[in-house]
Amino acid sequence: MTRGADIIDLVAFVAVAAVVSVLVDRLARRTLQAARSQAEAEALARLAGGAVLTGVEPLPELVAEIRRMFALDAVAVLAPAGGGWTPLAAAGAPVPTRPDDAPLAAELSDGAVLVVSGDALEADDRRLLNVFIAQLRLAQERARLQAEAGTAADLAEANELRAALLAAVSHDLRTPLHAIKTAATSLLSKDVTWRADEARGFAKTIDAEADRLTHLVTNLLDLSRLQAGALGVSMRPVQVEDVIYRAVDSLGATGAAIAIDIDRELPAVRADGGLLERALANVMDNALNWSPPNRAVRVEADVVEDAVVIRVIDQGPGIPVERRSDVFQAFQRLGDRVGNSPTGVGLGLAVARGFVDAIGGELAIEDTPGGGTTVVFSLRQGP
Predict the structure, then answer these.
(1) Shortest CA distance to 40 belongs to which of 136, 139, 131?
(2) pLDDT (tens digit, 9 = 90+) per residue, 320-343?
(3) Is 257 found in the same domain as 133?
(4) Domain that holds residue 144
(5) Structurally, how many domains does the chain consist of?
(6) pTM of the full predicted structure?
(7) Strand ranges inside 82-238, DSSP E
(8) Fewer Cβ within 10 Å of end Cβ, the chain: N or C?
(9) What are the pLDDT digits (tens) for 206-231?
């Protein structure tokens, strides 16, 4: 009887142990599944939340995330190139150099292939990997769209610049050319005998309009150099007073309407003398164009803290505060809002700003007391 009870107890114990073992195994499986699900959820959350896709380089970020998530030896995105393959992004080592060399390869967009090396992936891992592959394809598509958008923006900017150039230059080239042609034709005419003073007047017209054309073409070439980043800069100590007088002289007869007021000897500045002279001449020319008749343009210079400050002052109509940044853009003119619209394609101040930036200075616009515009150059002192 006792032996039979022991057998029953043993069977019951074995049955309970089996049930407990099954329950523990199920619990362990569920724990592993929960851990895997949590890892998958975190990875998917990073994708959905933009931790990967908002990076500057989405493909490298995604490739690194795939390697980390699945504990792989290497992951790479290969693109066909010249009969072979080139890596667009890679993480880990050794990186497979061809899709055929990888244990697992998946096609992406534009002929690219995701290659993976490491331990074999389970079915659940492959399912999650497919999510990453979809994100890689989206990253490729986004990169393609961004490139197309950048190209479209560049084309739009180029078209806008071309339209502005044609609209402005067509008039400002045609006007001096017409004056030169008229004066030259008159001088060459055999039907009229011109007096000496009349012939001299025609010659002066040709000379002035040729200077005007030269100024326009020079500014166009300067603008193209600035936009192409091909501006050569030679920095050295420069005497500001000398540069100011050279800039005035470069304006020819119109420079007589500029009054220079420098109270004391100024220290040298570190700059490219040629670029500074051209910038000053452009600003002075702009001020002369906007100044009322019989009103001189003043040029003042002084030391303010550790900078040498040059002010080109006119008493024209002034520039509204909200438009001051516009006048430093190419082909910008404010002549449509005043009666005495000056000629010019609106390049002078744009070129001046580019030159001053290139030599490490600053160019700003202030109001002239009593009305008008003051353009302020701030230049660094230096040996």
Answers:
(1) 131
(2) 888 887 777 766 555 433 334 454
(3) no
(4) 50-172
(5) 2
(6) 0.53
(7) 84-92, 104-107, 113-117, 236-238
(8) N
(9) 988 887 778 777 777 776 677 667 77
